[in-house]
Amino acid sequence: MKTMKLDKKAFTIQSFEEAADHQKQHKSLSEEDKRDVFLHLMQAAYGFVGTAWPKMDMR
Fold it and tell me: Which residue in 16, 27, 28, 54 has the most C-beta neighbors within 10 A?
């Protein structure tokens, strides 16, 4: 089974001000939209964008 690893190059470094601006936008999202954003960020972080969520090893 392939081990999932965080792709640290998937995101950009932001200033505190830039990150704070994103919080305002995310607070206004519906719960469904927040779920979609979370899924996309997880896919980008672990490199499985456009594919099914991989099985997790729960040892």
Answer: 54
Tens-digit pLDDT profile for residues 11-29: 778 888 887 777 777 888 9
Percent share of the chain, pLDDT over 70: 81
Whether residue 41 has pLDDT greater than 70: yes
Which residue range(s) make up the domain with 31? 24-50
pTM of the predicted protein model: 0.54
For residues 35 and 33, give the distance between their C-alpha atoms in angstroms, rounded to a whole number.
5
- One-letter identity of residue 58: M
How would you write 1-56 as a 3-class SS string? CCCCCCCHHHCCCCCHHHHHHHHHHHHCCCHHHHHHHHHHHHHHHHCCCCCCCCCC
